[in-house]
Write a structure and sequence with these properties.
Layout: H1 2-6, E1 11-14, E2 28-31, H2 36-39, E3 45-48, H3 52-61, E4 64-67, H4 74-83, E5 87-88, H5 98-110, H6 112-128, H7 130-144
Parallel strand pairs: 1-2, 3-4, 4-5
Helix pairs in contact: 3-6, 5-6
Length: about 140
């Protein structure tokens, strides 16, 4: 919270089943859940754990990210998102330093290349109609057997 306050941004903490026991600063809001496809397009950037679903939702929303992985495939997604220019990370949560988080949030919210690249990818994802194409491929495969 210390790092986040220093960025001058407002934050929405989607806590899930984990509720904070602290009183949150005025710039913080906490909710238990919200659909990513509704929530993410309204954000300046997304700070998240790097799970495949959250990463995909971030890309579909066309938003830049800061990724703080915990386990499994999350570091992979953080590195991929960083390599394609739409995120910074990985910043493993267990070793995350306040200064790292401040710098990363400031960069993805102020350096225009992150937002531009993320918006371009979001548009490409929406235009490719991936679910329709996947369904067509599956149907063709099933009917060709």
């Amino acid at each position: 919270m210390q790092a986040l306050e220093q960025t001058g941004q407002r934050f929405l903490l989607v806590s899930g089943w984990f509720k904070t026991a602290r009183t949150l600063p005025e710039s913080f809001f906490e909710i238990e859940s919200a659909p990513h496809d509704w929530l993410f397009p309204q954000m300046a950037a997304i700070v998240h754990h790097g799970g495949a679903g959250t990463t995909a939702a971030t890309l579909r929303a066309g938003k830049a990210a800061v990724i703080c992985p915990l386990v499994a495939d999350q570091p992979f997604w953080a590195r991929l998102m960083t390599r394609i220019g739409v995120a910074l990370g990985p910043f493993p949560l267990r070793s995350l330093k306040t200064a790292q988080l401040i710098e990363a949030i400031l960069r993805v919210t102020t350096e225009p290349t992150f937002a531009q690249r993320a918006a371009e990818l979001g548009e490409r994802i929406h235009s490719e109609q991936g679910a329709v194409q996947a369904a067509d491929l599956i149907e063709r495969y099933l009917h060709s057997s």
